[in-house]
Design goal:
By secondary structure, this protein is α/β, with parallel strands linked by helices. The chain has helices at residues 4-22, 28-35, 39-51, 71-108, 121-130, 175-183, 195-203, and strands spanning 55-60, 64-69, 113-117, 136-141, 166-169, 191-192. The protein is 51% helix and 14% strand. The strands form 2 sheets. A 4-stranded parallel β-sheet has the order 4-3-5-6, sandwiched between helices. The longest helix is centred in the middle third of the chain and has 38 residues, at 71-108. The chain is elongated and about 65 Å long.
């Protein structure tokens, strides 16, 4: 089984190979910005791709470089893309099932209006799952940063919070931090979360490499 670090590296390499296929003259700085990692990390990934025969580099004028996918690079990109799609669809199914269970329990408790809290893919899964229920997602809120509209759902203003029955935590990353930040905004009794997130909070953060 791949470790979390290995999975992250595979995701980064997939994105690099995808980007190089589209733009052979993309800069490492642009890649770093798009991946959200340090420039030195991108340089290490590029060197790894060269060392393993996935890409070739050619220097061009103005001290720039062009990157080419090798046949092996195209094959690896296809493999990583397929794995990413399988993992994504699996996570989507698990997320939808978890929100279905949560929304069913909330509906049984008389909950009708909620704020979804987060800022990643899980937030959109929560919005999608609510469409097949009688629960209304009134607003979205990011406990760890600036809030913004998502899928047509407006951002909540914590200084003038909407009248809702629950604030539902919907995050993949930084769950404990998001939970503690949300507790500073609303009472514990108003916070709910899908079971997949509750289990991750109980397990705690992953051990450092």
């Amino acid at each position: 089984m791949s470790t979390r670090r290995e999975a992250t590296e595979e995701q980064a390499i997939r994105q690099i190979l995808d980007r190089i296929e589209i733009d052979e003259e993309v800069s490492q700085r642009d890649l770093a910005d798009e991946l959200g990692v340090a420039l030195g990390m991108v340089n290490a990934y590029i060197k790894r791709c060269v060392r393993t025969g996935l890409i070739k580099i050619q220097q061009v004028p103005s001290r720039r470089y062009k990157y080419y996918l090798t046949p092996q690079g195209f094959a690896e990109k296809s493999r990583l893309t397929g794995q990413y799609l399988r993992d994504s669809f699996g996570a989507l199914r698990r997320g939808l099932s978890s929100f279905d269970r949560l929304y069913g329990d909330l509906a049984d408790a008389g909950v009708k209006r909620i704020v979804l809290c987060g800022d990643d893919e899980m937030l959109e899964v929560g919005i999608l799952a609510a469409l097949s229920t009688g629960i209304e997602v009134v607003a979205v809120f990011n406990p760890l940063g600036d809030s913004h509209e998502v899928r047509g759902v407006p951002a909540a203003d914590p200084a003038a919070p909407p009248e809702v029955d629950r604030w539902v935590l919907a995050v993949i990353k930084n769950g404990p931090e998001a939970y503690e930040a949300l507790r500073e905004v609303v009472d514990d009794g108003l916070i709910a979360m899908p079971d997949v997130l509750r289990l991750s909070l109980l397990r705690g953060p992953a051990p450092a490499d």
